[in-house]
Design goal:
2 domains, mainly alpha, about 5% strand, three-stranded antiparallel β-sheet, Ferritin
Length: about 170
């Protein structure tokens, strides 16, 4: 594939992915405000953006077998842990952007758990087995992720156990 086309596909994937997430968050807000049809509109268009993003990712041949997908996911998590969020955190600190620092710290703490879970899953898939997994809980406030029962309060943001969503 030509480099300009490849970069165009990556940019399109990024934009469509961001729009998908943005519209889902807009739908949540609309629903909170009692605008159910507006929420449905945002949700439906978010789905269309997801369809577009998937097509671009497929054109880039970035959806492989589960082992390859896990390696890609693990590399992304490690980049975020080792480089992305530490540097974002420092810059936000230099600029006295406390709220941004809190967000970057939440992400950093969470990405470490994601990397551990992906590593465990990869080890299993490499042996031809599915990962044995307990309940997964995500803090609705900071995104902290854990397997098993959530503690009384989130270890990252301190909010109560009832802020966790179960999967």
């Amino acid at each position: 594939m030509k480099k300009v086309t490849e970069q165009s596909l990556k940019t399109a994937f990024s934009n469509e992915s961001q729009d998908n997430m943005r519209y889902l968050l807009f739908a949540e807000k609309a629903k909170e405000e009692g605008f159910n049809n507006l929420a449905r509109l945002f949700q439906s268009i978010a789905y269309a953006e997801r369809v577009h993003a998937k097509k671009y990712l497929q054109c880039l041949n970035d959806i492989g077998i589960s082992q390859d997908n896990l390696q890609t996911a693990l590399a992304a998590e490690k980049f975020q842990i080792e480089e992305l969020f530490p540097s974002f955190f420092q810059v936000a600190g230099l600029q006295n952007e406390v709220e941004a620092q809190i967000g970057f710290n939440c992400s950093l703490e969470t990405e470490q758990v994601h990397a551990m879970l992906f590593t465990r899953a990869l080890e299993n898939v490499q042996q031809g087995k599915d990962i044995i997994l307990g309940n997964i809980h995500i803090c609705k406030s900071c995104g902290y992720t854990l397997e098993g029962e959530p503690p009384p309060t989130c270890p990252v943001c301190g909010l109560a156990r009832d802020t966790f969503k179960s999967f």
